[in-house]
Amino acid sequence: MPVRIYALAKDLKLDSKELVEICKKAGVTGKGSALASLDDDEVQRVEKYLEAGKQKKAAPAVSVAKGASAPIAPVRGGDVISDRGTANRVIGRRTTGAPSEPAAEPPQSAQADAPPATKPVEDLPAETAKPAEQPVAETTPAKTPAASEPAATSKAPPATPKEKPAASAPKAKPQQPEMSPGPLSPMRRDPVGHGGGGKIRVIGRGSRSSQSSRGEGDSGGAPRAPKRREPSIKINLAALPEAKPPAPKKSGSEPPAQQPEVRFTKDAIAGHKQGDAAGIDKVVSDEKKKPATRPGGLTEFAEKAKGRSPRVSEADEAAEKKRNAGMAGARPDRNRSRRPNNRRDLMEGGGGDFGRRRGGGRHGGGRRRKGVNTAAPRKEAVSLELPCSMRDFCEATGVPVAQVLRFMMGMGVMANINATIDQQTAELIAADMDLTIDLKAHETLEDELITSLEEAEDEEADLVTRAPIVTFLGHVDHGKTSLLDALIGINVVKGEAGGITQHIRAYTVEKDGRAVTFVDTPGHEAFTEMRARGANVTDIAVLVVAADDGIMPQTEEAISHAKAAGVPIVVALNKSDLEGVDPMRAMTQMTEHQLTPSEWGGDTEVVRTSATTGMGLDELLETLLTVADLHEYRANPSRKALGVCLEAEQQGDRGVIAKLVVQNGTLRVGDILVCGSSHGRVRAMTDTLTNAPLQEAGPSTPVNLTGLDIPPGAGDRFHVLSDITQAREIAASREHGSRTESLSGVTTKVSFETFQELLEQGRLGEQQEKTKLNVIIRSDVRGSLEAIDKELTKLENPEVEVRVLQRSVGGVTLADVTLASASDAVILAFNVIPDDAARSLADERGVEIRRYDVIYKLTDEIRLMIEGRLRPEKRNVELGRALVKQIFQISRIGTIAGCYVAQGSIQRGCRIRVNRDGRTIGDYPLDALRRGKEDIKEVPRGMECGIKLSGYNDVKQDDVLEAYKIEEVARTLD
Ligand SMILES: Nc1nc2c(ncn2[C@@H]2O[C@H](COP(=O)(O)OP(=O)(O)OP(=O)(O)O)[C@@H](O)[C@H]2O)c(=O)[nH]1
């Protein structure tokens, strides 16, 4: 009877992977994975091989006993290792013995032969039995195949260089220990033989310093320019002759000889021009009498020597001020203060020129010299907590604010002293100013609590087996949803808008008495994030590949996600029921992506399935459970829960509904939860498949949960805390962080309507800047927001930029319309509707709200518009809204909705959108419109009527019916 390799491995008490290897060696081919089956014959072959291996293993034990230099026993190796000096001595001997082999490979190669841990034991005897004199040959290992074998001999012991001599100790001449350290022979190339320092080189083998030592040694004959460098191990080298430190420059403490500075007043100069010499004479005589108090003068240095800052008496100062006012001789001073590098003086704390210019220029520099320099001394190594303000940065580093602001201006950023500096900016400034900054992130409650929760390790005794989380990934329409539906026994595919999955689904089902959690992801290219998220929560990825299509772009992407997540991949070759499909084609393509099918000897399980006929479903399930067995997924149900939010939405009366998967621990009703920037207490939990209420959810369980204050982001991790205040604080700080990040800049007024006009009128060509189309996105779930976002970024071109001013989950609100009106933005409502107030304001202000239910329609429409090709030949004209007050079930007719027309009117022949809980759930033609028993053409606002929809009988009380008609609109921009 066939037996799976992993099961046989269990019987034989071997590792499954090891057994796969053994199968190969035993000549049983095509068994690339532990899931492959072996028939009786193959099992026997494997067992025989193992038996033979055991015998082989037993044989060398005799030789070990015989020979003193057993290949594995580190007896002699121990001798060599025990005394480093001995080792070196041996090396030295060999070096002298064979000095003529300078061109051999570098000694690192001996270490590069690190032993592969998985080397089958049974190989050892054969290898170690190879001729022991080969060590000599090992010095030229690349030359012959035989030469590489002794290198293999040294693979067994883990500690490489020391044990190598023992491992490959030549058995042929055990009595000649001097020949034994053959494997060390590469050391001969080490220049030990050329001089002292052998000890050092052995220690430093492989290190850079030793290599350079070797380089020097090699140059024994060839002269090489000596390089000055630090000795790597100083204790073994003669001390370098002490160089006298250079004498401090005298010029540093003595002022340069100066010419007496004679300054002429304007009057003196003017008088001189008029032939009056008296004014000049007076200035010259005054100058001679004046004490040397100018900077750099002797008085100043005398003061400095006494440890005081040179000060000028009030009287002198006043006199000087008077003298210097307006004198031509003051120009050098002024120039100095204007020099661009004056900030260096300032930074070094020695100047004050900068301040003099500002404060002292007009009002007299003397005052400044009197005061104390208040600038913080510049610090070289600073520790800074981020984010911080410009002021904090400057105070911490001692760099003047003006200097930092100037730098920022140079980078095109107009900042002020209160501006916040982020890490990147701080690093840039620091690099520019040669500062060493140790940037620390602010230690928050988050770091304290969440990190400890994430890092808490579970006790082995607490761990129990959990259900595997299996995610279906693959290209759009390859049959993921159908396959999952068929496995679970439900039908979700039918209800999908546009026939594509736009939400992530997760269900736990019981199969063969075991729980499995399935996650379905959308295949449309827009949902990359959802696929990545699906892959990140999963244990096993099922790659659904349609046999007729093969590997497609999103299949490739899914492969990357699964590989990045490091999870096993099982391929479901779906649609195998289709006639004429060639599964070999898809399998060949798979090999190009390093997914070799197990039937071709690889380790990827490929199951041929058909969601339509049910073919291969059992096998797929069995394979998934087997993989789960192999990996033993475990969790600790007794700890506080943590996991991931897959999706979240705001539902009218129920509040926030979040779909979470518990990854570890148990989540209970009443638990305090923080998830992204939302928090709250778990109010209720329901099963994602049956909607049954749950009191607790253990590991691997997906739940729909209420109780959070705002919808968390899809992909946000959640944690259970014990204090609601802490949860609130953490959520608030995250919200603050993300708001700060997403603050958008100034908006340009370009509306959706005018956008095409701009294009048509060719005004884009005249504009230097890109034309910006501002949009506000509202969606039913977070995942769609990301998908739309991603699609919109693809629409950018050199002339047009689509700017998302705001994106959020939930219906269109008054605030959205206000923002759109202020910034000429268009509101893109994906699967949501505007509330009454928003609708009225939008009408009043002419704000456009575009509604979509399929993502590619949204992006296609915008793309067409951007390309100037949008031809609004058909336009939806909103007619009115009616509220369903009562439902009447009439046999043979169906459901009649008794409605009250709240806005506009309902007209015969229109179409009706059915909205429930703020979401559009369907769009149907109006079948019948009646008042009493009469069929009528139109029902105006404030009246009641009966509405029958065509093809939909599930209208419920409180549904909102929106009537609209499709009008043909003539093109106006042709
Ligand atoms: N013949 C055949 N058709 C299939 C099979 N599986 C799915 N289909 C059809 O393929 C189409 C797409 O199936 P879905 O299950 O929606 O595909 P999907 O991969 O979930 O699509 P997205 O979720 O949008 O990525 C549907 O019309 C299915 O009926 C199959 O095994 N055989």
From TrEMBL:
Please explain the role this protein plays, according to its UniProt record: One of the essential components for the initiation of protein synthesis. Protects formylmethionyl-tRNA from spontaneous hydrolysis and promotes its binding to the 30S ribosomal subunits. Also involved in the hydrolysis of GTP during the formation of the 70S ribosomal complex.
State if Transport is listed as a keyword: no
Q: Where is the composition biased (Low complexity)?
A: 98-116, 137-157, 200-214
* Region called Disordered, residue ranges: 93-379
Question: In what ranges is there compositional bias, type Basic residues?
Answer: 357-371
* Matches recorded under NCBIfam families: IF-2, small_GTP
The protein's name is Translation initiation factor IF-2
Q: Which HAMAP family match?
A: IF_2_B
Keyword terms of this UniProt record: Cytoplasm, GTP-binding, Initiation factor, Nucleotide-binding, Protein biosynthesis
GO molecular function ontology, one term from the record = GTPase activity
Tr-type G domain spans which residues? 465-638
Concerning its family, UniProt says: Belongs to the TRAFAC class translation factor GTPase superfamily. Classic translation factor GTPase family. IF-2 subfamily.
Which organism is the protein's source?
Roseimaritima multifibrata
Would the keyword GTP-binding turn up in this protein's UniProt record? yes
Indicate which residues the UniProt annotation says bind GTP. Answer: G474, H475, V476, D477, H478, G479, K480, T481, D520, T521, P522, G523, H524
The record's subcellular locations are: Cytoplasm
